[in-house]
Design brief:
Layout (H helix, E strand, L loop, with lengths): L2 E8 L4 E8 L4 E6 L8 H4 L2 H4 L1 H5 L3 E6 L14 H27 L4 E6 L1 H12 L4 E7 L6 H4 L5 H4 L3 H4 L6 H8 L2 E7 L5 H13 L5 E5 L6 H12 L5
Parallel strand pairs: 3-4, 3-5, 5-6, 6-7, 7-8
Antiparallel strand pairs: 1-2, 2-4
């Protein structure tokens, strides 16, 4: 399996940023790490290996960017208004540096956004905010409500980065039409601590007539083993 390492200076985050890329060709997949995880986490925990066959066949190419969670939502030493601004800087790094490179590297105008745990939040939020750039969302064991990080503070930046709040109020046809064209999977376990968040997001999507698959695996919790079973199953749904 071809593996490449990239490191560059992100002007949005004002620091160096790293990413691993797996594969030689195929449909691009942006795979976010879990809470405060790094660009090598999905490799180290076997998620990349779970999709090795698809990667080696040239059907997909996976891009694993670093996170900025420790400096954004999880940095309780600074005010929430600053933390959300760091998150927005991270999103701009993904939009301009990562997706910009993906478009050049693969020739595809859209990519898949995927992630486990808090990586699923990044995947879903990116896709719902920029549905012209994302074709599929694959969430595994995800949680999506950022209010738990901001302790009662709430401004427009928080609102527009919290899918459980902005999605129910979304009426713009430009956004809704593109979101409805996506392939969306919410994967969770019957004993997953995030089960209720997935059911809640599924209900929101249903009320907006957004087709999706709520995949609840009974008898399972929140684990890398489950995610390694889910990930190649979801990737197999891609049609070019």
């Amino acid at each position: 399996m071809k593996e490449e390492y990239f490191k560059w200076f992100s002007y949005y985050l004002n620091r160096e940023f790293e990413m691993l890329v797996f594969g030689h060709s195929g449909y691009p997949v942006i795979l976010f790490p879990t809470s405060k995880g790094h660009y090598y986490e999905n490799k180290d925990f076997g998620l990349i290996d779970s999709a090795a066959e698809l990667i080696e066949q040239g059907k997909i190419k996976i891009y694993c960017p670093d996170s900025a969670d420790a400096q954004s939502w999880y940095d309780y030493s600074v005010h929430p208004s600053e933390r959300v601004l760091t998150h927005i800087a991270y999103e701009n790094t993904i939009l301009n540096d990562v997706i910009g490179y993906i478009n050049h590297d693969t020739g595809h105008e859209k990519a898949i956004a995927a992630g486990c745990g808090f990586g699923a939040y990044h995947a879903a939020n990116l896709a719902f905010r920029h549905p012209d750039l994302i074709s599929h969302i694959f969430c595994m064991g995800g949680f999506f409500d950022i209010k738990q990080f901001i302790f009662g503070f709430y401004d427009d930046n928080c609102y527009f980065n919290n899918p459980p709040d902005y999605l129910p109020n979304l009426t713009d046809p430009w956004y809704l039409d593109r979101i409805r064209q996506m392939g969306i999977v919410l994967g969770t376990g019957g004993q997953d601590i995030c089960l209720n968040e997935n059911i809640s997001l599924s209900n929101i999507l249903s009320r907006k007539d957004i087709n999706h698959w709520l995949d609840i695996r009974e008898g399972t919790g929140n684990s890398w083993q489950l995610w390694k079973e889910m990930f190649p199953r979801y990737l197999a749904l891609i049609n070019g």
